[in-house]
């Protein structure tokens, strides 16, 4: 007769939620709904940051159900199964591929757009990117959020922050969610020149941003305001940053590691 209380904890391909369940006391009724990548891919990519063991921490938990993954490839691809694909990749190094979650196509789309805008990004290997600072001016590029595999709505707010520093006018059209331009008003408090008309925001740049007291409305808005604050002159204080912890674990520590002046007040 226990009530069911669903709690969504996205972030790091479900590794954050998996860790919270792993570290929770055994209460006899907590259920983790996730995929095997939370234990396999996530535990490898974040092995220096997690405190749980993908085997020992879940030894007392049984598998309730099993689902299947789909392999999608060009119809002209010379393989018809995962085994054939692996064999083909071994014979032909350099096969391009993407997976959902970590290294997902929406994130790869964002990389392509960032490059088109003038950001210098180099792929060192399948899990490492090198992003270099540049004296060149960013070029404004229009985007439209669309379902997979097009430009992801979850990168819209961060892209808006980037476009405040780009040369020209960028039209950002949101087609997935209603009322997802709340971060634009906060950026405008910092000096950004943004016009909202229906589902489209037009960002004019480059604009020198000034530090201000702003408020985050959701996870992605939090990240975009952090980026805007780093680009702004002076101090920016962001309220309601608890949103950001749902998807960006210890973001202030990671940004400090690359030279950002950022601290969590509470």
Question: Care to describe what's here?
Answer:
This protein is 27% helix and 15% strand. The protein has helices at residues 15-23, 41-45, 82-91, 105-117, 156-163, 182-189, 219-231, 251-256, and strands at 120-125, 128-132, 138-139, 143-144, 166-173, 193-197, 200-205, 213-215, 237-239.
What distinguishing features does this structure have?
alpha/beta; five-stranded mixed β-sheet; two-stranded antiparallel sheet; 266 residues; single chain; globular
How much strand? 15-25%
Number of helices: 8
Structural class: alpha/beta
Largest sheet: 5 strands, mixed
The H-and-E topology, N to C, reads as: HHHHEEEEHEHEEEHEH
Compute the separation of the termini in Å.
37 Å
Shape label: globular
The helical percent reads 25-40%
Could you tell me the mean pLDDT? Answer: 78
Number of strands: 9
Strand-helix topology:
Blueprint: H1 15-23, H2 41-45, H3 82-91, H4 105-117, E1 120-125, E2 128-132, E3 138-139, E4 143-144, H5 156-163, E5 166-173, H6 182-189, E6 193-197, E7 200-205, E8 213-215, H7 219-231, E9 237-239, H8 251-256
Briefly, what is this?
The chain has 266 residues and is of the alpha/beta class. The chain has helices spanning 15-23, 41-45, 82-91, 105-117, 156-163, 182-189, 219-231, 251-256, and strands at 120-125, 128-132, 138-139, 143-144, 166-173, 193-197, 200-205, 213-215, 237-239.
């Amino acid at each position: 007769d226990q009530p069911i209380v669903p709690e969504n904890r996205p972030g790091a391909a479900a590794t954050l939620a998996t860790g919270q369940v792993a570290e929770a006391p055994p209460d006899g009724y907590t259920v983790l709904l996730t995929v095997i990548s939370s234990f396999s891919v996530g535990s490898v990519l974040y092995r220096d940051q997690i405190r749980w063991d993908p085997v020992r921490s879940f030894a007392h938990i049984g598998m309730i159900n099993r689902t299947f993954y789909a392999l999608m490839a060009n119809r002209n691809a010379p393989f018809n199964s995962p085994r054939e694909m692996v064999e083909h990749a071994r014979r032909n190094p350099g096969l391009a591929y993407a997976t959902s979650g970590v290294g997902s196509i929406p994130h790869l789309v964002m990389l392509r757009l960032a490059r088109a805008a003038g950001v210098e990004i180099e792929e060192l290997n399948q899990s490492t990117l090198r992003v270099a600072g540049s004296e060149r001016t960013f070029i404004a590029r229009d985007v439209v959020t669309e379902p997979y595999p097009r430009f992801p709505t979850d990168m819209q707010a961060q892209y808006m922050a980037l476009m405040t520093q780009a040369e020209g006018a960028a039209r950002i059209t949101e087609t997935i969610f209603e009322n997802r331009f709340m971060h634009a008003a906060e950026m405008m408090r910092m000096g950004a020149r943004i016009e909202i008309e229906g589902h489209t925001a037009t960002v004019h740049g480059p604009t020198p941003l000034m530090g201000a007291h702003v408020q985050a409305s959701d996870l992605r808005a939090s990240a975009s305001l952090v980026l805007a604050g780093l680009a702004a002159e002076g101090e920016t204080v962001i309220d309601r940053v608890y949103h950001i912890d749902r998807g960006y674990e210890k973001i202030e520590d990671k940004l400090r590691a690359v030279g950002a002046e950022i601290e969590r007040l509470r």
